[in-house]
UniProtKB/TrEMBL annotation:
Alphabetically ordered keywords of this record: Membrane, Transmembrane, Transmembrane helix
Entry membrane topology: Multi-pass membrane protein
Matches recorded under InterPro entries: UNC-50
Gene source species: Trichophyton interdigitale (strain MR816)
Cellular component, GO annotation: Golgi membrane
Region Disordered: start-end pairs: 1-25
Protein's recorded name: Uncharacterized protein
Length: 476
């Protein structure tokens, strides 16, 4: 045998033919192949993408069964073929143009809405959800996660499960050499295919049913439209959850992935609660004081404020009252209250000046039309003429240090001007119009602006709008 010619080795790889040797490769990062195929249209299988879209509606299990076969042949769960996303993005763009044609005044705004459907709704949401699932699924449902202990309690955990170890810290693009880990690309594949079912419900079917969902003003018509709309959303998010469950249950190293279906139970309970709407309040028959009182309870007692209520009640944050000093006990005024329970917020009368809600929000000012205006910053009691302020309101101050501000909840009657943060409600028994508004501002008492304060200000605006919407929901 020629000593200069060696027999090919059994496990020789492509690196022996001019590529990078295995010793020089990074053993921790493997770039997804999909990045290399983004612009190679000839290598995209659009026929497969159409089959997947059809199967997601008819038999979604077949889609993930094909991914299982792909794993057996390619040794990866992720299919590096962007044809599904390209085709789906085209459908979303055309659907966005249809929505824009119905609701937008110009082609530019129509095109902007269509682009938002693709890059924000689909790609943005799918990337966020897939990233969250990538970092949580393995830790919750993996061999050493909490879900695996359920099998231990039942005595059903296999010997193979005992031999499995927790995967090392995951990189964004997966690990080479680790056979049991959740691939980020596969998480995105699941999110993208689950979003397709959401698209059929909320982007296509809802658009077709818009004349039915927005028809009529009577009680019966509104109830049927609400029931149909809520059922549509229940079906959409339930199907989204089910598709996600099918995707992750396909991974053999995850335990009890059926727990992913729990949100369907919660959504079903919420849907069932809509079948029994509460008694509608005759808003036109209520006084401004009672409207503001109910508005206050809804603002600080809704589900949106629940997390902040818990944090404030735990004592993790402490803030100094904005208005200090003893309140006058003559003139028939009520003493300020220190409220830590939603049930303590009255429904018929306003909170006294100086009252503190959950240790952070203080009543600093209030005014009722045709009644006395109280201002603790002035010397005692002053009276305002009705002509000077034609609406009723209550102010809540908050914050100290670098961030402070005020929320004003107000009630307007027969006022044609409308702000951004306002919703008009017509009274059933009167011809008048009642409008609820939220006005708010924030500032930095120390004067220095930082990036953190700027971000906090933006979050505060969004958070205030959510509180306002929740208050209206509970009020009406």
């Amino acid at each position: 045998m020629n000593p200069h010619i060696s027999v090919p080795r059994q496990h020789a790889g492509p690196a022996q033919f001019g590529g990078t040797s295995p010793q020089n490769r990074n053993p921790f990062i493997r770039m997804p192949q999909v990045f290399g195929r983004l612009f190679k249209v000839s290598q995209m299988d659009f026929e497969m993408a159409i089959w997947e879209m059809t199967s997601l509606v008819i038999a979604p299990k077949k889609v993930f069964k094909s991914m299982y076969y792909h794993k057996q042949t390619k040794n990866t769960w992720h299919r590096p073929d962007p044809s599904f996303s390209y085709l789906f993005s085209l459908f979303l763009y055309l659907t966005g143009l249809a929505w824009g044609f119905a609701y937008k005044p110009s082609f530019l705004s129509m095109n902007g809405l269509a682009i938002a459907f693709v890059f924000l709704h689909y790609l943005g949401v799918s990337l966020i959800i897939s990233t969250i699932m990538y970092f949580t699924v393995g830790r919750i449902f993996g061999p050493n996660g909490p879900a695996a202990t359920i099998s231990e309690w039942r005595g059903t955990r296999s010997s193979l499960g005992r031999m499995r170890r927790r995967a090392p810290a995951q990189g964004l693009f997966g690990l080479s050499g680790d056979k049991e880990h959740v691939e980020f690309g596969y998480c995105f594949d699941i999110s993208a295919r689950a979003f397709f079912t959401l698209y059929l419900h909320l982007y296509v079917l809802q658009f077709v049913l818009l004349p039915v969902l927005t028809r009529g003003t009577g009680t019966s018509s509104n109830f049927l439209a609400t029931l149909l709309g809520n059922t549509l959303y229940l079906s959409a998010f339930s199907y989204y959850t089910y598709i996600s469950f099918l995707g992750y249950s396909n991974l053999p190293f995850l335990y009890h992935t059926e727990l992913i279906l729990l949100p369907i139970v919660i959504m079903g309970i919420l849907w069932f609660s809509t079948l029994f709407p509460g008694k509608k309040l005759p808003l036109g028959q209520l006084s401004d004081e009672e409207l503001l009182a109910r508005f206050t309870r809804g603002f600080f007692g809704g589900i949106v404020f629940a997390a902040e209520r818990f944090i404030l009640a735990s004592g993790l944050t402490q803030q100094t009252p904005l208005v200090s000093g003893a309140q006058p006990t003559n003139y028939g005024l009520s003493l300020p209250k220190n409220i830590w329970n939603v049930a303590e917020i009255p429904l018929t009368t306003l909170l006294p000046l100086g009252s503190i809600l959950f240790g952070a929000f203080q009543v600093t000012h209030s005014h009722l039309v045709n009644k006395t205006k109280l201002n603790p910053t002035s010397e005692g009691l002053t009276k305002m003429k009705t002509a000077e302020e034609k609406f009723s309101y209550i102010d809540f101050g908050f914050g100290d240090g670098n961030f402070a501000g005020c929320h004003r909840l107000s009630v307007h009657r027969n006022d044609s001007s409308k702000g951004i943060e306002s919703v008009a409600k017509s009274a059933d028994d009167h011809d008048s119009m009642i409008e609820f508004r939220l006005s708010f501002f924030h500032c930095n008492p120390r004067g220095d602006e930082s990036r953190l304060i700027t971000m906090l200000s933006g979050f505060h605006q969004i958070y205030a709008r959510l509180l306002f919407t929740d208050a209206l929901r509970l009020l009406c």
